[in-house]
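Table S7 (text form). Paired inputs.
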Amino acid sequence: MVETVLVGDIGGTNVRFAVARQGFAGHPVISDVSVMPGDDFADFDDALIAYCESLGDKKPTRALIALAGPVSDGHVKLTNRDWVVDAKRLEANCGLETVRLVNDYAAMARSIPELPDSHFKLLHDGEQEAGGRQPILVSGPGTGLGMATLLPVGQSGWRVVTGEGGHAAFAPATPREWALYEALKDKHGYVSSELVLSGSGLNEVHKALCRIDGVAWQEIPPAEMLKRAREGDQICNDICEIRARGTLYALGDAALMNGTKGGVVITGGVAERLADWLEAPAALERFFQRGPMSAYMKPITIRLLLAGEAALVGAAALYFDEVSLQ
């Protein structure tokens, strides 16, 4: 019988589940995908119980769940949702033999070698050595700003190193960005890249720019903000430009510090919606401009991930990596 595993990708907005098995050449194949708003559930246990019940007799006995928060001894406090998840409690509540919890960006990063080229949009075609295996940076703005580095192991294996790079300090580079930084600093004290670049900080950035310009703030849904930006609304366009340029600036720093010559993959729903701004020359220059090290940056390929189910694939890959070592 083919072994299956229940996998999950739990972010600040949605909970995603699937059943995974190993397919051709060991690549994970997922099925029974379910996407549900996190707001529909009081806690994560209820969400996983609902999915397990929907599977009936197809429910696997083991699970690997990727969550948006640091993992410590089988516990996770989600960064952008008031949920505390405990692996042992899930095993008891859901009738599972084992539940392993990992950071969501560990799963996101591990998915990258498993996905076809059609799942990516090329933003910058670097000069990566043919057949070479170099570290890859995986990061980008969604509800938060996750970050991980994918390290090659041997001829075909991979190891993921996660961190909380999204909470590093935001680096303003223009007078408009400095004004935004000062406005946010007055209110929050510390201005992280996640605050400026991710979905969770959108209203705070919008409010700050409105205060700077002397304009009354009114909440605008993200889709409407993009529409207005394309129609020439100054504040909305500034928000899109600041977020796109700031993302590439932050990822350029991380790529330089981690030596990710294997490329940079930008992920997250916010990044997908900002694709037009991310590929603008002025935004890409933020990635390349590193003084005497600018030549080091140019050969690094930059891609935008377009696959919403990538972290489910990555969670499955992490599980089967462990199985192969047993």
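Next pair, protein 2 of 2.
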Amino acid sequence: MSTETQALIAEYFASDTLAGLPRDHWIDGQWLAASAGESMETFDPGTGKAFASFAAGDEQDVELAVAAADKAWRGAWGKGLPAERSRVLYRAAEGIRANAERLAVIETLDNGKTLSEAQADVRSAARLFEYYAGAADKLQGDTIPMGPDYVSQASLEPVGVTAHVIPWNYPFSTAARGLAPALAAGCTAVLKPAEQTPLTALLLAEILHRAGLPAGACNVVTGTGNRVGAPLVAHPKVRHVTFTGSVETGRRVMQAAARNISSVTLELGGKSPMVVLADCDIDAAIEDVLWAIYSNAGQICSAGSRLVIERSVHAEFVERLAARANELTIGHGLKNPNIGAISSLEQLDKISTFVEDARTRKIKVAAGGTRLTDPDSGRGWFFAPTLLDDIRPMDRLVQEEIFGPVLSVQVADSIEHALVLANGTEFGLAAGIYTRDITKALRLARDIDAGQIYINEYFAGGVETPFGGNRLSGFGREKGLEGLRSYCRTKAVTARI
């Protein structure tokens, strides 16, 4: 651990806050207080206590931010050279890396995740800006053959002002995931971070400004979904909305955008299966399944939240997996345990309700199943890594997203049965496959309905690989070159010569 990180941690535990945390909106290249003069508190999930306050915005603040974004799109940023956009994004990547330690500590405090997880998120965000910096000046169109008497070309243009509604589980990296390709394409943006985790999106906007991004090209308005998110996604000058969150909220976002015929990218979560076949490397699969569900305390849209396992290895696998789950340490994220806190008391209550309901229905709790607190302070919002065994296909533990460290086990009698179980929900975000037989793996990958398939390593891939889901998991893709498509529109120009 670096000296800077140690100093930040010491400062926080001595004062219950950090100096210099952002308190206002970032609009048109400057800090602006909320129009109504109101503020909200943000809580450290590791202690359950508020550690900072921030602006509570409303429709008037949204109007200012969208106006600034529209002006920047029609001027300095939207009409600027692609090569200059590339240079700004490269400098932004370096700015993130230069501030990585402070960003990671603040992300841990705001979200509750472990410091090592927050550090990985910051590295990922820097890589996103670096990746799309390389793409900014390579957005080429096509020429279309129409015979000797015509010249026809299709060019790519930025869609205009984009809105980004950021979730609380990965505040910094998700902000970067949408913002970097939008800026690379020449769009401008207004970000609305989750009210539970507003701080790092504000710091990102400031880093971009220092990297040379023109005023208005990136704006951040903080506050609640009703007062900020709803007017933002419904604004007539917003031409594309990128939303990550629940299915119900996603439906409302889509309806609001539809009134303006604005396009949307929706990432709405999942109930992703990990299909473990009897011929897999059992030792490797146990460790991989463990982190597929318990990373970030299970608060991952694409978490491997269902274990679909062949009956012949079920008993041994679950016994060993439960033993590993019971070994994991829990505590305040800045102390870097294996698992950090649940991001809000509301989410902790939701997880607890699911598990208590399972107990009343006599479902076997093979590991965990209890609310916890930080062992050092006795405070905070924590839930033990939990394993619920032998769940029926239509049980709510299989069909509904819990969004916590809770793994539901389903037993399959054959590979064909495993496929049926894997496809047995309305979600289609991700899936994992564990087998030594590449033919089995590729056939399952072909037949499982999901936006991304991981074979023998969950979360395989990276910034370069498209990410998104099918059915109730949403539509559209982020990351990779696919991530640029949402932020471009095609114009065809044809001339008779």
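The mean pLDDT is 97.
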